[in-house]
Amino acid sequence: MEAELEALHARSFGWALACCDRDHDQASEVLQMAYVKVLEGTARFGGRSSFKTFLFGVIRKTAIEQRRRRWLDAGRLSRWAAARTPDADVADPEHAASAGESTRELRTALARLSRRQRELLHLVFYQDLTVEEAAGVLAISVGSARRHYDRGKARLRLLLASEARA
Amino acid sequence: MSVHDDRDLRDRFASLRRSDADRTPGFSPPRHAAGAAPRPWRRVALLAGTAAAVATVALLPWRRDVPPLEDAIAEAEALASWTAPTDAWLSIADLSIPDAIPTLELDSASVTSEAEDGETTGDSP
């Protein structure tokens, strides 16, 4: 089990970043919690899907739980509301400088998509999953996943085009 | 939505993936989780706790304070001899309860002669 987790670690971290609005610290924390769930058997792999799909589902669920916990914390909620801007995830100037222009545009455009669209596009284009597999990770129907995928892709193209013009 | 367009998106995401890879922390499985599986003391503690709970529940009736037999008899007698203060209002001085059920005899019934003749019916014109 540990070997499988290690093999998927980089991709899992990328997915955790996507689930945590690209917050590095939160993604690390969520990933560790997901590993604990898998290794302790709290989350059990039933073999109905691939291990990667199962693990991504656990990471997403853990990220949602953490997000909910933070929202329930009133102090953090107010800080979150104050800090939240459409480009909050590219606020790290050091990283933004090191990333290429193309990556910066993509990150900015992704931040403007709905969460569901962003997650679907990430799973398909970043993680190379099929739409069907992505639907499994997100626990939604394939039809719904396909709709979000198509609309998200169209909107992402529009946003990228406007970013390029800006 | 041509393949070329998708290729463009895939290239952008691949670039993002490479960028993220530089920031990915090293893999370190949680120590307490890795060592969690072989912990026999946990199972022993769970079994001991369960046994203690079962024993407590089973022994509870025996630990209740059961009164001595003499006290129970005295309490029952007191209850049996108790009368309500308003019982005196129910006593009737001349009340005599018959020993036998009274029987109905022919002598006790009187039949009028008018009834026999049919004169008192009032139906005749």
SSE topology:
The complex is a heterodimer of chains A (166) and B (125).
Chain A: H1 2-7, H2 9-19, H3 24-40, H4 51-72, H5 74-83, H6 93-98, H7 101-111, H8 115-126, H9 131-138, H10 142-165
Helix pairs in contact in A: 2-3, 2-4, 2-8, 3-4, 4-9, 7-10, 8-9, 8-10, 9-10
Chain B: H1 3-23, H2 31-34, H3 40-63, H4 69-80, H5 113-117
Brief sketch in words of this structure:
By secondary structure, chain A is mainly α.
Report what the structure shows.
The complex is a heterodimer of chains A (166) and B (125). Chain A starts with a helix and ends with a helix. In chain A, helix 3 (24-40) crosses helix 4 (51-72), helix 4 (51-72) packs across helix 9 and helix 8 (115-126) crosses helix 9. Chain A has helices spanning 2-7, 9-19, 24-40, 51-72, 74-83, 93-98, 101-111, 115-126, 131-138, 142-165. Chain A has 2 domains: 1-84, Orthogonal Bundle (Rna Polymerase Sigma Factor, Chain: A); 89-166, Winged helix-like DNA-binding domain superfamily/Winged helix DNA-binding domain (Arc Repressor Mutant, subunit A), CATH 1.10.10. The radius of gyration of chain A is 16 Å and the shape is globular. Chain A is 77% helix and 0% strand. Chain B is an all-alpha fold and 125 residues long. Chain B starts with a helix and ends in an 8-residue tail after the last helix. The relative contact order of chain B is 0.03. The model of chain B is unreliable at 119-125 (pLDDT under 50). The interface between A and B is medium-sized, with 34 and 25 residues.
CATH first level of the largest domain in chain A: Mainly Alpha
Q: Compute the average pLDDT of chain A.
A: 85
DSSP helical segment count of chain A: 10
Overall, the morphology of chain B is: elongated
- Secondary structure: helix percent of chain A: over 70%
Along the chain, the helix and strand elements of chain B come as HHHHH
The largest sheet of chain A is: none
Overall shape of chain A: it is: globular
